[in-house]
Amino acid sequence: MTARAVVAVLMIWALCIATSAAAPASSSDHKSNKTANTFVITIDAPDAIRRLIEQHIEFPEKPFANEAKHAGFQRRVTQEITELLHTEGYFTPATHFEPATANTPYRLKITPGPRTRVASFSLEFKGAIAEETPENQTRRAKLQATWPLITGKIFKNARWEDAKSALIASVMAQDYAAAHIESSEARIDPEKTQADLKIVIDSGPAFRFGKLQVEGLKRYPLKLLQQRAGFRQGDPYNRDQLLAFQATLQNSQLFNSVDISIDNDPALAPAAPISVMLTEAQSKRIGIGLGYGSNNGARGEINYRDFNFLQRAWQLTSLMRLEQKQQTFSTRVDTLPDANQYRYTFGARIARTDIKNLETLSQRADFSRIRVTANSTLQYGINWQRESRQPAGAPNTTVKALTLDLWWRYLDVDNPVHVRKGHVSDIRLGGGSGHVLSDRDFLRGYARHMRWWPIGERDVLHIRAESGYTLSASRSGIPQEYLFRAGGIQSIRGYDFLSLGAREGNAIVGGRAMVTGTVEYIRWLTEKWGAAVFADAGDAADNLRRLKLNLGYGAGVRWRSPAGPFGLDLARRHDTGTLRVHFSIAVAF
């Protein structure tokens, strides 16, 4: 397909999406879609009241057969409207019916009256939380201060119920697993349009975590659960810790189902048992996949996982991936996290690449210590690799390196699959010494930051900035992993994959310096489909002085797939005008 044809397809596709999104939805309102002979009732009320009534009250579509039917309709609608408006804080509504005439339709006039507002609020406590300790005083004051229906606020039944639910949930979240609302009262004075609110909460005793009572654990040791709990027996009860424990087990892939709860019997509060109901997943799994990416071309892979390697609940992962530009075989073993959430990983990899006239064959072995929390990952370790390079038009070389590596990542996003707000930062530092199993002294640093801002209700602004530099007298003797190339998805669109770097013969090889950045604006036209415009810039070269501003820009289509956002982009290389199609799936963290 030519570049112009691709442009035409994308333009037609985006136009179809925009047209479908902009087309007005057909109304299902019986009052506006009927013929001239259909019975019509006109509602005369403020817009918000009218919309509420049209949404919740059913009206007849035919004239009343007799006066009895008409009177029954008036009684029903009056009662339903009164009850409906009560939930919105209108306790003195007036309803008036005007039958149709030869020149006017049937008219329903509603006067909602003044809205009721909160006049006072009383919050009382019983149980352990009522004890006069500094901690309890601070907590009671916080609960009182965060109550939303304060004096002067409009009273709505939904707000009242939501506020009570949030209040008792806040009390139960820490220490008081058996807390409950002993009584609640909303006294309404319709004449004064005032509501006096009162709640009494009985916290019950303060709870502490007891022993784990586990059902369904057959293959793995109890120690596995105890290490991942995040709390110890005797610690004060905290609901967030319990939920985090459940999420950790669910995400471990060791179990098909996990249900964790505390026994909230007040008699057991000093050491409340923790019930853990599990269904173990198959420990050995084989996966096969096919795909295509604009960076590496067609792809096929097979992977094998053993989640109970050596009967120690360690995870063994073996992968064979065949791509047009890269072929990889790797195997890795991950241990269980310890009490401080540190785990060890060791593995080996053989990889062959053929990208931009540079063929490489590398062997690597590594050992690392990793700590993963809700928002961050810290990894440090040692690895050794040997790499054979065959650049077209230049001599073949073989390099070796024993390196120490440090990698830190911080992630804070609203949704890891479909990000709308948040940021991700990466910092990596690694190097080797010519005195210890390496061909050259070098130190490599790399940093990347990505951020998303929501714009309005639908749009998203995304920026990405990355830079890297390898400190060394020369790039020779350094494996490609510790040098830099740029171009392609998640780099500079409009340029071929890893086509920017240092030149060696007829090949593009890694250089010692790299800077790239992205600005992208996404407009979600529907819940699933969106359009994007973007600009990428940067370069990779052998030193900072040789870096140039290579610019690529374009537009694309976005689709929220179950696996993550799918992107199809058409990018233009600024210096030559060359058009290139890129597509990817999922956010590349």
TrEMBL record:
Q: Where in the cell is it found?
A: Membrane
Respond yes or no to whether keyword Lipoprotein is given for this record.
Answer: yes
Q: Which residues form the Bacterial surface antigen (D15) domain?
A: 285-586
Keyword hit for Lipoprotein: yes
Primary location recorded for the protein, binned into one broad class: membrane
Signal sequence range? 1-22
Pfam family for this entry, one: POTRA
InterPro entries the record matches: Bac_surfAg_D15, BamA/TamA_POTRA, D15-like
| A GO-annotated cellular component | outer membrane
| UniProt entry keywords in alphabetical sequence | Cell outer membrane, Lipoprotein, Membrane, Signal, Transmembrane, Transmembrane beta strand
Domain POTRA: where?
Answer: 137-204, 208-265
Please list the coiled coil stretches. Answer: none
The identity of this protein, by name, is Putative lipoprotein
